[in-house]
């Protein structure tokens, strides 16, 4: 009865708060000057047709692509106040217009410069801009201007140009675009575009500040006006009457806009951001600064607001920079049963999904959810001996729960009571480690533990034990038990594998062919629809085999995927194989010829998945355990979502660090950097691309957490750079660049002609001299000898031209001329280097030199330098710092280091200074250490 009353109370709460509870979750990212922003005051925000977000700050125009900020300065202005950007818009011909405190500007895209427009007519503040096709409406301190077909028309609401009503703060149009509505500091005005008629309305007569309209927007026949002291005011166009909108807790309205249908977006200078329902006249969503909310907005003093075409919220602050909500396309969902349960931020280790009944195991306990009855219950200590749930299995009407260090418990879904498994070794099943629990086709329950393998029959209550002493079970923990479609059991332990033969009811470890993975540490085994087996090892690539083991192989999932990163594998109903890793999620088809990668932008909350936690339900949905929740996806929606992806756009192409526009470069402009964006506007650390420079790269290369690629020392030739989202041809962008040779073709032609001319001249000179000698006949013997000698030389040159060739200087790099390593020597030395660095961790020594490392490897510094620079294409410090960054990531994930500051952790990892640590970390990951710690749910401890 108590549970029923509790359930009814929760349902009533849910119904009362339904709108808020089901609302979209927003996670905001902050962009400040350290991220490239030109100033902390963001007064205007605009998103153009290409996808760039333009920010108007106190002194500059900034362009943001989701990772980097580029500045466009106002040249020729000394006063900082006049530089403040008030408005940004784009006309249909893709011209970008900017209004600031001194006038009107237009971006010259070819040379990336802002140009002043009609300064002789508009030499005062431009407060607002509105584009209608190629027509530009300009609201200024001295009236309205209309820019059309290259002509500029001025419209005054009062003949006195200095009258307050000519100070136009915002503009909008009516439904049929025949009337402009003008918000001024002295009332509301309308201007007819047909006959030029002007009308005016005042909110409160004889109250000047009440008529100070700062911004406006329109939904249907209602105008919403933001004031400086009266909050939001509504104006009914048909009734020509004003009324107050709902109070927002702050009457200073800094920006207002709408979706044109049913929601008004309001920014206040003091109480954050509000979404107002036009129909209900109620606030449906509010964003405000909360010191305890690390994912909220950074200030309540909001100066500008934009809700873009994808629903992302952009918030410009007074002195806190820019906040924007991280975009996710909704392909993946994090499981929740509101308002009673939400798996977000739970590290899910195991789960059983029986439709409306789910049992979820995490690092923080066990959760039971029954959506049919509305019952939700959690189990933690002391009810559970251990909060770390490793495995869950439904067997004969009950759930068997395996824990780490807390034995195995049984959950009755009818009574929601937990009890210890009462059969067998009491010590083991109450305090031991239970790694897996799986049923077979004959009604037995198989239990993999830290003390061997057990087979339990629920009907007879009999339990049988298999150990390395009484069977061929390999020693160590039993991690996986999997029964294939023939009834054969595959058992994986700490030290190897064996097979359970149901005919003889025995374990056999001597049946594996040479080259199989039976001696490896296998953690997960899976059988697909075509009866292929997949083995995920703790170290090594994915291994596949037939049921009879007559064909097996190592299968490469992704060329750049680390071998030890695989966690689980499942096949969907469309034939795609989904592979969850400790650094992302992939799907592949046709031996990897088709593939896709999924990140935060697809709704994956975190990059790390848990071992073996994957399931396909009866509807074909795939479920995965992630360190930030239980997530699910409908595989049939992938192609639909991928079809909506924007093509990648190049934001900059640099030669020797300098932007260029020509596709032809000089011979010494051969260090190229390609910068690009897919306008994801998600987590920068979740960026994932693949790229290839034709003529240099044979295969596609993966790029994570970055949006630029550099090539150095390119030889002359024509190159095509291609970049795309992994496996997504629709998103591909390409750029062709030609590096001209030092001497052009015509130069080589002239050189050849010159050489031929010199040779001809020499031959002519010799022939002429010989002729003189012959004519003189003074010494026929000498002449004969000279002629004979010349003929011999010519004959020698004809017979041995290689002598001349051999005398040419050898084209060899001077640095490595005397010490080159073969491919095999490089591989061997690389293997020794990685083994030594991973085992001994010399990188934690901040004074480590290349000579020290070379001595430890029993090789020369020259050979080690050749390996790093020529074979690995890395500098020594980049190589060492990558290990230091990896060590830092491990430390911040370990709670015992939570009391250390960033500087202390950096020193423990081997960094000699805080500056070098920050520089190396951002170069390696694309984000700052603080952003990384926040992305994994931690909090950085500063000095």
Question: Explain this structure to me?
Answer:
There is one protein chain. By secondary structure, the protein is an alpha+beta fold. Helix content is 18%, strand content 38%. The chain contains 15 helices and 67 strands. A five-stranded mixed beta sheet has the order 61-67-66-63-64, with no helix packed on it. A four-stranded antiparallel beta sheet has the order 1-28-27-26, with no helix packed on it. Helix 12 (876-893) packs across helix 13 and helix 12 (876-893) packs across helix 14 (914-925). The longest helix has 32 residues, at 745-776. It is flat, with a radius of gyration of 37 Å. It starts with a helix and ends in an 8-residue tail after the last helix. The relative contact order is 0.05.
């Amino acid at each position: 009865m108590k549970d029923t009353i509790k359930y009814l109370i929760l349902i009533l709460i849910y119904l009362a708060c339904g709108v808020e509870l089901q609302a979209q979750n927003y996670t905001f990212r902050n962009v400040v000057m350290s991220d490239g922003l030109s100033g902390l005051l963001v007064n205007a925000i605009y998103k153009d047709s290409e996808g760039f977000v333009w920010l108007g700050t106190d002194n500059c125009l900034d362009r943001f692509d989701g990772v980097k900020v580029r500045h466009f300065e106002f040249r020729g202005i000394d006063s900082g106040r006049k530089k403040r950007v008030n408005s940004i818009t784009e006309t249909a011909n893709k011209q970008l217009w900017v209004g600031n405190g001194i006038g009107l500007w237009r971006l010259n895209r070819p040379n990336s410069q802002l140009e002043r427009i009609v300064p002789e007519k508009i030499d005062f503040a431009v407060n607002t801009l509105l584009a209608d096709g190629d027509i530009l409406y300009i609201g200024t301190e001295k009236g309205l201007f209309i820019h059309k077909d290259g002509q500029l028309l001025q419209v005054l609401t009062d003949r006195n140009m200095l009258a307050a009503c000519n100070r136009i703060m915002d503009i909008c149009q009516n439904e049929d675009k025949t009337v402009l509505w003008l918000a001024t500091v002295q009332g509301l005005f309308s201007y007819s575009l047909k006959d030029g008629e002007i009308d005016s309305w005042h909110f409160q007569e004889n109250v000047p500040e009440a008529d100070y309209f700062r911004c406006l927007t329109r939904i249907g026949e209602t105008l919403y006006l933001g004031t400086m002291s009266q909050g939001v005011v509504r104006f009914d166009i048909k009734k020509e009457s004003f009324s107050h909108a709902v109070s927002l807790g702050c009457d200073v309205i800094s920006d207002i806009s709408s979706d044109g249908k049913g929601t008004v977006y309001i920014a206040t200078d003091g109480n954050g951001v509000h979404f107002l329902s036009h129909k209900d006249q109620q606030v449906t969503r509010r964003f405000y600064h909360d010191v305890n909310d690390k994912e909220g907005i950074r200030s309540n003093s909001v100066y500008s607001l934009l809700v873009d075409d994808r629903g992302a919220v952009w918030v410009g602050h007074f002195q806190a920079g820019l906040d924007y909500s991280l975009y996710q396309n909704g392909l993946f969902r994090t499981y929740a049963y509101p308002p009673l349960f939400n798996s977000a931020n739970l590290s899910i280790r195991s789960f059983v999904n029986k439709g409306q009944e789910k049992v979820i195991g995490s690092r923080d306990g066990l959760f039971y959810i029954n959506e049919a009855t509305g019952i939700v219950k959690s189990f933690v200590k002391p009810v559970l001996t251990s909060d770390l749930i490793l495995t869950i299995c439904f067997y004969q009407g009950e759930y068997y729960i395996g824990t780490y260090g807390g034995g195995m418990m049984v959950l009755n879904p009818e009574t929601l009571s937990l009890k210890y498994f009462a059969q067998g070794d009491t010590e083991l099943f109450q305090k031991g480690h239970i790694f897996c629990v799986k049923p077979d086709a004959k009604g037995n329950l198989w239990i993999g533990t830290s003390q061997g393998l057990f087979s339990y029959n629920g009907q007879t209550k009999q339990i049988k034990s298999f150990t390395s002493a009484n069977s061929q079970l390999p020693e160590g923990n039993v991690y996986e038990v999997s029964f294939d479609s023939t009834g054969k059991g595959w058992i994986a332990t700490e030290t190897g594998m064996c097979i359970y033969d149901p005919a003889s009811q025995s374990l056999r470890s001597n049946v594996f062919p040479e080259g199989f993975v039976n001696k490896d540490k296998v953690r997960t085994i899976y059988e697909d629809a075509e009866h292929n087996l997949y083995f995920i090892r703790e170290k090594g690539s994915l291994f596949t085999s037939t049921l009879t083991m007559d064909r097996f192989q190592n299968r490469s999932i992704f060329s750049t995927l680390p071998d030890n990163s695989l966690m689980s594998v499942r096949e969907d109903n469309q034939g795609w194989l989904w592979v969850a890793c400790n650094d992302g999620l992939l799907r592949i088809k046709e031996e990897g010829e088709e593939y896709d990668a999924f990140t935060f932008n697809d709704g994956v909350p975190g990059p790390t998945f848990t071992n073996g936690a994957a399931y396909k339900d009866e509807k074909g949905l795939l479920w995965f355990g992630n360190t930030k929740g239980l997530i699910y996806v409908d595989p049939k929606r992938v192609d639909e979502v991928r079809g909506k992806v924007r093509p990648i756009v190049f934001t900059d192409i640099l030669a020797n660090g300098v932007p260029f526009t020509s596709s032809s470069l000089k011979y010494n402009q051969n260090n190229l950097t390609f910068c690009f964006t897919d306008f994801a506007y998600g987590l920068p650390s979740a960026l994932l691309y693949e790229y290839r420079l034709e003529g240099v790269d044979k295969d596609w290369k993966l790029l994570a957490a970055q949006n630029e690629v550099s090539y150095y020392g390119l030889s002359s030739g024509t190159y095509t750079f291609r970049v795309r989202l992994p496996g997504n041809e629709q998103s591909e962008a390409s750029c062709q660049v030609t590096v001209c040779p030092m001497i052009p073709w015509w130069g080589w032609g002239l050189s050849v002609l010159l050489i031929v001319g010199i040779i001809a001249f020499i031959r002519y000179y010799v022939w002429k001299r010989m002729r003189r000698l012959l004519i003189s006949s003074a010494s026929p013997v000498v002449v004969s000898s000279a002629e004979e000698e010349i003929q011999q030389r010519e004959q020698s040159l004809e017979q041995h031209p290689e002598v001349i060739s051999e005398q040419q200087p050898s084209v060899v790099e001077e640095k490595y001329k005397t010490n080159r390593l073969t491919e095999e020597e490089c591989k061997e030395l690389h293997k020794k280097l990685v083994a030594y660095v991973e085992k001994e961790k010399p990188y934690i020594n901040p004074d480590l030199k290349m000579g020290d490392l070379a001595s430890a490897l029993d090789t020369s510094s020259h050979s080690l330098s050749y390996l790093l620079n020529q074979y690995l294409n890395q500098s020594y410090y980049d190589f060492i710092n990558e290990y230091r960054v990896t060590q830092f990531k491990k430390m911040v994930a370990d709670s015992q280091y939570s009391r250390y500051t960033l500087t202390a952790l950096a020193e423990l990892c081997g960094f000699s200074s805080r500056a070098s640590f920050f520089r190396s970390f951002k170069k390696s990951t694309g984000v700052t250490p603080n952003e990384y710690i926040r992305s994994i749910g931690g909090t950085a401890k500063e000095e």
